[in-house]
Queue: 2 jobs
Job 1
Amino acid sequence: MDKGKNLRRRNKSRVSGAEPGLLDGRQELRPWGRAWEVDWFSLCGVILLLCLAPFIVFFFVMACDQYQCSISLVLLDLYNGEATPLSIWNKAPSFSWTIAKLYASWVTFQVVLYMCIPDVTHKLLPGYVGGVQEGARTPAGLINKYEINGLQCWIITHTLWLANHNYFHWFSPTIIFDNWIPLLWCTNILGYIVATFAFVKAYLFPTNPEDCKFTGNIFYNYMMGVEFNPRIGKWFDFKLFFNGRPGIIAWTLINLSYAAKQQELYGYVTNSMILVNVLQAIYVLDFFWNEAWYLKTIDICHDHFGWYLGWGDCVWLPFLYTLQGLYLVYNPIQLSSPHAAAVLAIGLAGYFIFRSTNHQKDLFRRCDGKCSIWGRAPTYIECSYRSSDGGFHRSKLLTSGFWGVARHMNYTGDLMGALAYCLACGGGHLLPYFYVIYMTILLVHRCIRDEHRCSNKYGKDWSRYTAAVPRRLLPGVF
């Protein structure tokens, strides 16, 4: 702990980033990155999430397993005394060593794909950026290198899955659904092991001490992370691996397992299940196709690695991002053609806005503003900032295209996609709509958090940008 305090003092004296702005003829430096200090409101939120998040996941999974995905029936039984949290817990399948070995094999397989098979897809697929790529500059001025091979890992994994289904028959395609609750125990164990290891590592042997942040509060440090980019060796990056694998690669496999279970139970797969599979597969493939671009997003560029990312990627993502498919196993819904068409249209429109917005920013960055957006030269705000190593850097904030409509139109498109997944499940139950409710809260909070960081980083230049683009998500509204 003393080592952490000393490191914190040293970093504070150098400052973890800056915004431009003159003070007595010198650049005024302010914190860049996540908070140094923790207020009581933030601390209470952190403790509540640490305590409640695992039970929220358990609640939704048990609602489906024991109550056909009806939240109201669970609450009614609890209110009337016909069930207790303990009785629901006792009905749940327990931990299984067999499933634990299977899950350990799955994670090990993804580690091998990530670490041992250099990317070749970028040599075969025009337009795809893979192989060794540089990330964004960290607050301490470091630029990490990454082996981008997520698309290759996804292709290999799904090729083996389909080969098993069609030829080898090593396991049932419903294996994930059939062992969903035992898998919940396994993912929780991994999530806590990873988060705890990253926490201890930050104190004892951090990868880059200059990018660590110690708040002095153990709960906040554990949840939000201390290390910016914890690594083992040169290439195993915790943040990239657990953000992108094994959770997101599993996302499409989980949905395929749900569809297979629908086929097994009812003899058919509903168009709603097909829509969920297709729309979410587009999102997953987009993530891997643009994995190099992902290195420049807030997850990699701003968030430290702690329980929030470690446990969240192991448990929260695979279990709650796939609620629509799980719901449709218990409640098969065949949508009318107009309903299905509307869901597809909203989903595709959301994806178009999401991808076009991100593409415009990526194009603008790669060409240093020398490009065309919506048929004309882009407009932008010139800005500058300092990293904690004392380096002075310049940047440009785009105000053309979707970035001139609202400051986070990529989030707007993301929310449209989330809404489409939920609308595919009809309007009979609240449970499948948890995803869009959660994503709305998450992305609005992320808007505010990201803009606070940018304000600290860019200072008066950020004020000029917000004056040029006054809305965050919805033009003329918010």
Job 2
Amino acid sequence: MTTPSIGQLLASTVPMARTLNLEYLETTPERAVLRLPDQPDYHNHVGGPHAGAMFTLGESASGCIVLAAFGDQLSRAVPLAVSAEIAYRKLAMGEVTATATLGRPIAEIIAELDAGQRPEFPVAVEITRADGAVTGEMSVLWTLRPNS
């Protein structure tokens, strides 16, 4: 039996994530990179990706890095997004790519979980268009909620 990839795991457990046909380019504990292909069904009024689609892309990238970093903790804690904030910086056209990075060391977060705490940690996401211009910046605050 093969172990599902982080992208397969996210798509199978979070139905919303699979609706956008996201491409999982890199999913490691250090970095997650997802691409939203250019799809007319998800365009806004000016022909670029809709803000909601860009939000879902960014939140999905943050979820992938959380699964990659803490997948071995799922038997004792559930990862949950606590809050999210996004800033749309430039007009996005065509495909866009989200790159997520953890804001705290993994070992520090697991140590808090080991101590019986409910750790919180930020994930930063940068959304770029094909020419490399940053079109959006997102911050998602996550927690690992211990199972009771």
